[in-house]
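Is protoporphyrin IX containing FE placement plausible here? Inputs below.
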Amino acid sequence: CGGKEEAAAPTLYDRLGKTEGIASIVDGLIANVGAETAVPNSVMLRSHKPMLDAVNGVNGQAPTDPTRLQRLRNNFVDQLGEATGGPLTYKGLSMLTAHRGMGVTAKEFSVWREQLEASLNSNKVSANDKAELYVIIDNMYNDVVGH
Ligand code: HEM
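Reply from A.M.:
I modeled the complex. Tokens:
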């Protein structure tokens, strides 16, 4: 070596491509969830309808909260950017508070996780890095499901 500083091992945040890579994963997840809400017998539509209605407007009415999805997206990027060891700071609600009143079911969680998996695959995240991210995600299961 000989340098003054050892290079720190890359964090999961680094390996996912830093903020840009995480944003791409989150945008893919959101696109996949959005597409799933449009299929017949969608599993995700029930829980997401209030947000979709607020963003899109109902029956030709103006949207009541056009930036709601964008706020969720930015909060999610911050949350993962922090949880994977990056320099971002999550400023959103706790997972329990964010999902309270939604009554998210185990089935809904598992379909949501499939949308995440598809985004991780299209972003070419390695099996190892996916496993590490799923530890973080699955730790939140009890705060997300059943409230
Ligand atoms: C571990 C898994 C999950 C994580 C990490 C997560 C993360 C988040 C985050 C960060 C927010 C925004 C909180 C805020 O803005 O303060 C949020 C909101 C939301 N989540 Fe999740 N979520 C997860 C699972 C789910 C599942 C399984 C569903 C439904 C099937 C779901 C539906 C929603 C909806 C509908 C909102 C929001 C919002 C609104 O009304 O604006 N989430 N989630």
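Short version: Residues 22 and 44 are 22 Å apart (CA to CA).
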